[in-house]
Design a protein that fits this description.
Distance between the termini: 54 Å
Largest sheet: 6 strands, antiparallel
Low-confidence stretches: 4-31
Shape: globular
CATH topology: Immunoglobulin-like
CATH architecture: Sandwich
Radius of gyration: 20 Å
Strand order of the largest sheet: 1-2-3-4-8-7
């Protein structure tokens, strides 16, 4: 009986501990994100000569875009920043997406990276992005023929 009580107590501790961790696709404590979305992180940039904090969605220290809401069939101007990679300016990137709900795929944008426009960014680009349907989208960023990274977002 004593062993059964210990077993149940240990099982309860494991169940509670498992429920306290980050959810799959969540933020892992690095920023607010919806279910399945990539995390949000903050950078500091200068606007009108004053420092401001800007929320980014992506992979901190690697790349991301300035957080904006996306609505299906509506084009949205998006500023991308790439960090810690001084060889990127001048490269063309292709942004493709796959709707994780419907498996629909689309080319979202093609742009050329320029010198970083934000402190700490080695390259930046402005892209007009349009998603044909709502849902959870995985965005793949390709430079040349190599996948650079992926970001997941929710399109309303």
């Amino acid at each position: 009986m004593k062993n059964l009580v210990k077993f149940i107590a240990a099982l309860l501790v494991l169940v509670l501990a498992a429920g306290c961790g980050p959810k799959a696709g969540g933020t892992g404590g690095s920023g607010k994100a919806g279910e399945g979305e990539s995390p949000i992180f903050t950078i500091e940039k200068t606007v009108g000569g004053k420092p401001v904090k800007q929320q980014m969605r992506g992979e901190e220290g690697k790349f991301g875009f300035e957080e904006v809401p996306f609505i299906a069939t509506q084009q949205e101007k998006t500023m991308w920043h790439f960090f810690n990679n001084p060889d990127l300016p001048g490269n063309k990137i292709v942004i493709t997406g796959e709707n994780q709900d419907t498996k629909e795929t689309a080319e979202i944008a093609r742009v050329t990276l320029s010198q970083g426009m934000t402190p700490g960014a080695s390259a930046s680009a402005t892209a007009l992005m349009l998603f044909p349907t709502k849902g959870l989208w995985r965005i793949d960023v390709t430079i040349g023929d190599k996948l650079f990274g992926s970001i997941s977002i929710r399109v309303k």
